[in-house]
Amino acid sequence: MVNKFGSLSLQGKSIGKLTFAGPNLVGANADVAVAMLNVNHTLNIENVTPQAGFDFSMTFGTPLKLIDAKIIAGTARSNQRNGARVATKTGTLLPMSDAKTDTLPEEDYDAVFVSGKDKTVHGRVRSADAFDSHDLVLFRVTPNYKTDNRGEVVRDDYDEPMISNYQFNFIQQSKSGDVGNDDNIVRILVDPTESERLQAGLKPGDKLVPKGLQFAFAGNDATDWTVYADTLVALDEKATEKPASNQSKTTTSQADKNK
């Protein structure tokens, strides 16, 4: 399975201000107790599987903080026969007055977790839980074409297929470099304009470091995660790094607001 990462560490405070909304039951058999949390005093809800002994009878609206959280692949209540999985959040929920904080340092949360076509940001995650960004060796680049609601490729006015983004496929060098084992492959998507700029000087075997990483949960039979990057930089490149894109700036701004 491509992009088979297991879990990603999630920075709880980057989600926003959390208040208790009540208990809920999820999972394939509706037997997993989770805490429903309102986010930033809106009707948006985050379900979190809390630590053992969590008080599900606490007062509605109680402010809480989430520490040592993770995003993992959970079992969907629907579409189980198709092998569908969902992104499930776990962690320790504590009163705001508790002095405990994340075990990981803040700078370790160097990427973002996104959802939807507009890549809505839901918090900061740790990319090192997925792969070592300095361990990637390029072996193939292919386009992803835009499709309509019937699954047919969308074409432009010149009858050329429209490209949504490019797949940069990497071997993880430390994992034997076996292309035949999908579990060792990291696939990163880059927008067309940046991809075409990058491809001009690339060749198989190049070592590239992704910048501006965004993770989305796919949970299908081909991949658990979709990974996007603003750009890719040669591992040995000494030049000043390219500034982050608008997406990364938005994320940083959102994280600052939630501190």
Compact summary:
This protein has 259 residues and is mainly β. It is built from 2 helices and 15 strands.
Walk me through what this model shows.
The protein is mostly beta strands and 259 residues long. Helices cover 8% and strands 40% of the residues. The chain is built from 2 helices and 15 strands. The strands form 2 sheets. A 5-stranded mixed barrel has the order 2-3-4-6-5. The chain has a two-stranded antiparallel ribbon with strand order 12-15. Strand 2 and strand 3 (32-39) form a beta hairpin. The chain is globular. The protein starts with 7 loop residues before the first strand and ends with a helix. Mean pLDDT is 87; it is low at 238-255.
Give the secondary structure arrangement, pairings included.
Blueprint: E1 8-11, E2 18-26, E3 32-39, E4 45-49, E5 63-75, E6 85-95, E7 111-115, E8 120-125, E9 136-145, E10 163-172, E11 185-190, H1 192-199, E12 208-211, E13 214-217, E14 225-228, E15 231-234, H2 246-258
Globally, the shape reads: globular
Q: Spell out the helices and strands N to C.
A: EEEEEEEEEEEHEEEEH
How does the major sheet shape up? 5 strands, mixed, barrel
Number of helices: 2
Q: What percentage of the residues does DSSP assign to strands (E)?
A: 35-45%
Count all strands and give the number: 15
Mean pLDDT: 87
N→C terminal distance: 36 Å
Q: Helix/strand/pairing class, anyone?
A: mainly beta
Strand order of the largest sheet: 2-3-4-6-5
The percentage helix is under 10%
Cα radius of gyration in angstroms: 20 Å
Low-confidence stretches: 238-255
